[in-house]
Amino acid sequence: MSVVDSVLARTPQPYRSLAIRHRELLKFGIVGAITFFIDTGIFYALKLTILSPKPVTSKVIAVLAATMVSYVLNRQWSFRTRGGRRRHHEATLYFVISGIGVGVYSAPLWISRYMLHLQTPFTSRLVEELADFTSGQIIGLLVGMAFRWWAFRKWVFPAEQSQSRTSPRDRVPTR
User: Fold this and answer.
1) Average pLDDT score over the chain
2) Ranges for the GtrA/DPMS transmembrane domain (predicted)?
3) What is the rounded CA–CA span in Å between residue 59 and residue 55?
4) Which of 37, 124, 128, 153 is the one with CA 20 to 30 A from 88?
């Protein structure tokens, strides 16, 4: 029994059918939570050490590392019932969409830093850190996840097409 199935078994009935209907989204969210911690850990490890003058570069590297983990988890768990594409085609689409996602994730941090000037010496170190966290780890994450959820379902892991597009009455019965 998977983690999601065990949670669903203990979920009160009014919410169970809703959770079952959105099981794929729940799994995507769990993968997102795992990769959020990977992203945040790498982002701050780089931002507070070797890449301190380059927070956007730190963010891009962190998102790329989290994306690699995300592909494996989403392919093997979240979207395992979807697909139909060859693995190399699927992986290429995943990383192209994720590349666009890096821009989507990083844009709020870039706007905060370089358009709104929420950085030292224009503001205090505390305001800079709060602005970086809010724009990079909350706003960027939410906008990026919404984009990736939509794009992955549409292009990378589409619902498999049925083998035949004919209606049941057009089919010749076999005996």
Assistant:
1) 82
2) 27-157
3) 6
4) 37
Torsional class of 142: left (φ above 0), alpha (ψ -120 to 50), beta (otherwise): alpha
Q: Report how far apart, in Å, the C-alpha atoms of 71 and of each of 55, 152, 157 are.
A: 24, 10, 11
| pTM confidence score | 0.69
Structure tokens at 130: 């709060």
Using alpha carbons, select from 120, 125, 25, 131 the residue that is nearest to residue 78: 25
Task: Give the single-character DSSP code of 56.
Answer: H
Contact 135, 111 (CB under 8 A): yes
For residues 16 and 146, the model is more confident at: 146
Buried b (16+ CB within 10 A) or exposed e, 31-46: bbeebbebbbebbbeb
pLDDT at 46 over 70: yes
Q: Tokens in use for 134?
A: 């809010």
Q: Which two tokens stand for residue 158?
A: 């589409």
